[in-house]
Every structure is written in C-alpha cells, then in structure tokens.
Specification:
By secondary structure, this protein is of the alpha/beta class. Helices cover 34% and strands 21% of the residues.
Length: 353
C-alpha cells in the first residue's frame, strides 16, 4: 500500500483558499523539489509551488511534522487540480474529495479515537453535534478509569444511536390528511417559511425534504402532501411518491385536526400509523371530538403553541433522552461497535477504544 497521500481538505469548487494535505515519507523530497523555501515545523512559510520552472501557485506551506504538510493555495479549480496532479506525478495517491468522514491521515489526532472524532467532525451539522463529538475522548477515558464497566452499561452504549443520529440526520416524516396544518407545522420546525401553505386541501403537491435543527438534533424533515382520495392525477402521483418516502422514515409525526370528527381519513391514518408521534392540531378551534381520546400533543401550528413539546418528543423518541447529555460515552464507527459487541462477553476489551 502506497503510504504517500495527497488529500484535498476543503470542498471542491472555486474559493478564496484551498488546503491540500500531503503525508508520507516522500513529503520532504516533494517540498525540496517543488517549493522555493525551506519548510519549518509549526511555521507558516510563504513561497512558490513550482514544477520544472513553471510556478503553479504562491502558497503557504505549514510543516506539521517531518512527513506531513499542509499546502495552503489560492482556491481556483485550476490551481487545485494542477497541485494535485503534481503530487500524483511524484507518486502520491490523490484523494480529491473532501466528502466526510475524512481519512485519518487528514487529522491531527494522537489516538485512533481522536482521529475518528476529527475525521467525522465535518458531519456535525449543529453545535450540539460538535460538542458531543469533541467530548468523546474524555468521556471514554472517564469510563475506563472507573474500572471495567458492567455488561448492562456496555449494552446501553451499544443501543444508543444519539451520536449516529447527530452525524447522519434521521428522516422524520410529517403525515396526515389534507389541510390539517402539516406544512405550517413543518415551517415551525424549520423555523422559517419553507413549505407552501394555504387553507386549501392539496396545496402541498409533493414531499418537501430539508434538514431542520430540532433542539440541536439535525433531522431530514419531510413535509408530505395530504393523504386522501383525490381525482387529481398530479396529486395522486405526488401522494404515491410520498408514501415511498414515508416508508423510509425513521420516525413519523401524524397530524390530525381537532376541529374535524375522528372518522374517514383521520381515523384510518390513526389506525395505519400506531407507532407515530400523534399531534392534535388546531386546538384553538371548536372541538369536533374529545381530543383526550388519543394520546397526542396539542398544537396550534399558526402560532407555534405546542411546538416546543413536539420538538422534545422528537428528540426523546430518536435519542432516548431529552435533553441530550454531552459527557456520556457514545459510539459511531464500525470499529467502535465491533469492540463494544466483543466487550459484552469480554468487558476488559473496552480498553481497545
């Protein structure tokens, strides 16, 4: 396996700067051959990156250690491509996508756990995700210093999907009959006007998906068209597509209307999604039924009443706790899950974290 790597750490496309990390035993020779100034560990050195007398870019090189350096370049696509091609011609294996998780070689972690933290850091979309991920080395150190954990403690960590959800947003579908306020409720969760709303059945003609920050937990929130019988062929097609997306959801929020009787579409959806979070919307209007018949969160989507309770319920349903504790040890990589599964029967193997 070639130990010399050239990795683009910044996203592709035009930008003010771009950073390429080169690592491996060939780094010193590469810099001597192609950089006009001697690189120094821990210092920013400005000079020209060149090949055969042709200047590729005036760059700032930071030598991290004897075999790792960051090339800080102008962010034009030609400069980036030419620099990566230069590294490739000198025998480096090029990783030209900054899609996370990053290779461990792209991080400055001192341990494998620290490298996993830093390589997954670009996946953290919220402050909570960043804080929880960065807390993991200390959280695992505290667990290990307390002695060999019990089997129950290990199994609880294995079952905890919180950090995985913070890095890979779960899909949450909002479903319900037409014109019960799903899109207005979705806008409250998005914290902005994202879905089209109107007091007309069938306004949402297709599902709308976007990341929403729900009390620090990023979720792919899917606002779906009202599930109803309709002669409109376009709406029929949209409803069929939305059913596919609902089937892929990790969590369903079912919205019903407090001002309509529990019959027809409302009744069939309540029966069809027994495990959904139930929301009883429009509780500010004259009741069409006794809303205590079902265990649901009362809301007024137009004003935001009850939305905070819905947010807390979504977090608790997906993460098993609300609020989410920062200092608890979590797992989020295949390596970690394998160690924990082994530690269920051999608890001392937890030291491998």
């Amino acid at each position: 396996m070639n130990p010399n790597l050239a990795m683009l750490l910044t996203p592709p496309g035009s930008a003010a700067i771009a950073v390429i990390r080169i690592t491996g035993p060939a780094v010193p020779e590469f810099l001597r051959a192609h950089f006009t100034k001697p690189a120094r560990i821990g210092r920013c050195v400005h000079g020209d990156l060149h090949e055969a007398g042709r200047v590729v870019d005036d760059a700032v090189v930071v030598l991290i250690d004897e075999t790792t350096a960051d090339l800080n370049l102008h962010g034009g696509p030609w400069v980036v491509r030419s620099s990566l091609d230069l590294a490739a011609r000198d025998g480096f294996v090029v990783h030209d996508s900054a899609k996370p998780p990053l290779p461990h070689e792209a991080t400055a972690g001192q341990t494998l756990l620290e490298q996993e933290v830093l390589s997954h850091l670009p996946l953290a979309r919220t402050e909570l995700g960043v804080r929880l991920l960065l807390a993991q080395p200390d959280a695992w150190a505290a667990l290990q210093s307390a002695g060999v954990p019990s089997r129950d403690a290990i199994e609880r960590i294995l079952a905890d999907r919180t950090l995985d959800h913070l890095l890979h947003p779960p899909r949450v579908a909002i479903v319900g009959p037409a014109n019960v306020g799903k899109s207005t409720l979705a806008n409250q969760l998005f914290a902005r006007e994202r879905s089209i709303t109107a007091d007309v059945p069938g306004t949402t003609r297709d599902w709308v998906g976007e990341i929403a920050n729900v009390d620090g937990l990023p979720v792919m929130l899917l606002d779906t068209p009202g599930l109803r019988e309709t002669e409109d062929r376009i709406e029929q097609s949209a409803i069929e597509r939305s059913r596919h997306e609902i089937g892929r959801a990790d969590l369903i929020v079912l919205v019903v209307d407090a001002s309509r009787p529990i019959e027809g579409e409302q009744a069939s959806l309540l029966d069809g999604y027994p495990n959904a979070i139930r929301v009883v919307n429009k509780v500010d209007r004259s009741a069409g039924w006794d809303i205590t018949q079902i265990h649901g969160i009362p809301t007024v989507s137009t004003t935001g009443e009850g939305v905070d309770a819905l947010r807390r319920t979504i977090v608790r349903s997906l993460c098993g706790e609300e609020p989410i504790a920062i200092t608890r040890p979590r797992c989020w990589t295949d390596r970690q899950y394998a160690i924990l599964r082994s530690a269920v029967t051999h608890p001392t193997r937890i030291a491998g974290m």
